Amino acid sequence: MEEASGGDRLNVVLFPWLAFGHLIPYLELGKRLAARGHAVTFLSTPRNVARLPPVPAHLSPRLRLVSLPLPAVDGLPEGAESTADVPPEKNELIKKALDGLASPFAAFLAGAVAGGRRPDWVVIDFSHSWVPAIADEHGVPCAAFQIVPGAMIAFLGSRSANAAHPRAAPEDFTAPPAWCASSFPPATAYRRHEAEWVAARFRPNASGMSDTDRMWEMDERTRFTIYRSCDELEPAGAGVFALLTDLFQRPAIPAGVLLQPESDDGHGGDDSEVLQWLDKQPSKSVIYVALGSETPLTAENLHELALGLHLAGVRFLWAFRKPSGISAPGTGVGELLPAGFESRTRGHGLVWTGWVPQVRVLAHGAVGAFLTHCGWGSTIEGLMFGHPLVMMPFVVDQGLIARTMAERGVGVEVARDDSDGSFGRGDVAAAVRRVMVEEEGKEFASNAERLKEAIGDQRRQDQYMDVLEGYLTRYKDNNSSS
Predict the structure, then answer these.
(1) For 291-340, where are the E strands, in sequence order?
(2) What residues contact residue 60 under an 8 Å CB cut-off, 6+ apart?
(3) What pLDDT digit, counting tens, does each position of 245-285 carry?
(4) Which residue spans within 200-283 are E strands per DSSP?
(5) Does residue 278 contact residue 286 with C-beta atoms inside 8 Å?
(6) What are the boundaries of the signal sequence (predicted)?
(7) CB within 10 Å: which end of the chain, N or C, has fewer?
């Protein structure tokens, strides 16, 4: 990888949605562009910028973080600047607050242009439908960066595809859409209990727009779309990036996995107890359990998950996060776990409520599998270390990711009631034992190891960035968006 020089150097502004599952991949993209010699400005709000991992010293001259003031919105708690700060039902108010960044963004861009630092690109997220009009006033082109798998955006489809094949009821999302039917495996669709979330993305929310309308308006004003993905992780044989290019009539460019380096998680502090506990466990004997900080879990979900882990009889490390939707008094960690659970599992299980350095845990030799909600970042991290997956998806892209990974033979889903998504302790135990104990677990582990080798090929990952860099260089002076 060579650094760009002279006229090849780009000035790129990155502007992600206000969720840490978006902020971190955008920052990783920024680091990779800065490492190639380009100037990068990362925009967010003051509290979000303060919570990001520090920029490595050798990149800080080329990667600057800039804060835009987030306006107050009725119904949002003071200081809430990301989806991590609110329960799921208030996420749409974060979108309303985001729309209030239009004026600060316009002032930032006008100042950059007046100061002789006109950006070559503004790279925006699904939610930023109003940015291209502002950028156009200053002659700055926009590109999109989707941090979800290409399969999800293909499943949602373009405005024209949805006009030709309308979908509204949740049942409409339980099979691949017409434009994907010939390329997607039949199972690559949402379950009934997941589909209501998808159907709701097509309806206006408190911000006055639907999420899909935001995405379509953003897409129609950007020159191409970048994806945090690669061919090796999408549904096998689906030709997802060619399909996306055809659907949206714009190039779809995979940027690779953009994995955050192990030593760059932004947290120091007291993680030694977790790693020391792992040091005492046999090789590949532990299943690491982490369901993210924003997964809409219920108290019953947590109860059955705990009892299922106990019933499975395997060693486990559980990165326990109290779900943001459970905030009533008397619902502390002790109340959310079955009575006596921690004492009964002491010795072979650890429930950890503090910070867990997930990448370092997944890299540890004692870990043999990963029980995950199938968030895209977590899934990539698990596979980068060759871990087979026990999968428990809930919302967003998680269901499609789980179907894709099951199709690739790297793990199993916990069996769920199709109508409401409920599961019991026996369902958890059966899935864990299939991966960790039973004979077929060897096949899951072998397939996961092969996928690790494919996505861990640094030369291949660098090639994805080479292609993206080429598009950024060529398209900045090309007024065509096709």
Answers:
(1) 315-319
(2) none
(3) 999 999 999 999 998 765 445 444 445 789 999 999 999 99
(4) 225-227, 252-254
(5) yes
(6) none
(7) C
